[in-house]
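May I ask for a single protein's sequence together with how it folds?
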Amino acid sequence: MPKLLSEQQVNQFHEDGYVAPVPIMSADDALSYRRRFEAYEEAQGGWYELSKGQKLYLLQTWAAELVSHPKILDAVEDVLGPDILAWGCSLFVKDANDPGFVSWHQDATYWGLSKPDVLTAWVALSPATVEAGCMKVIPGSHKWDQIAHRDTLDKHNLLTRGQELAVEVNEDEAAYMPLNPGEVSLHHVLIAHGSTPNTTDDRRIGFAIRYIRPDVSQVNADKDCAWLVRGQDNHGNFIHETPPDADMDEAALAEYARIMKLRQSILYKGVQGKPAHTDLIAAG
């Protein structure tokens, strides 16, 4: 029996490649996490330049709490099984009336992971309405083969390389995934997805967490890193990470720098030109 999702939701994920919304926490709890994020953002003079959203759970305790949140892990376990690694995370912040957007893409394109036993849990810390630029997906597109992408390096595109599918996508087939604060969506690593600009007067803050099964491996490097958040790792394909004891802990900063040097060499392999954004390839 599923731990959190209904059997219908589990079937929907396998059939359509996504499920939403999944209630995880109260609106008050989501607001608390938003405030902790914004306090971190203010203290750093902007969150982006230091962490770029990547593996923020190695620097900030609130991020580590979200990545290891029992209800999120229950939902992930219902799809991936009991052994779960957190491979990374990304922040997707669209300020009020922000022109930022996400082009149609597949997450798997540049991640270098050996198999598609990978999903993203996208946590809403503020309202993610259609008007705010919530995620949209093409249901069933996770069953497509890996599609070629082209790099645009568009400065308003929130993706690392401004990458987009090199084929036309029928917008009429898109399904939108609006979320209230404290709700989560789950999507498959191969599903075609994107989002439009935020046209509201509030920020749209999403925290995307990438989960994998331990039998997945990294094909673009000898070794990659991940955090074992539930179950066991009997494969040894990833160097295990440890979350910080305190925010911006000195030892965590040193480890973070080492890990991110390795991760960037994987994500930007073969990229031409200067990336518009140096964060994880996006979802939102």
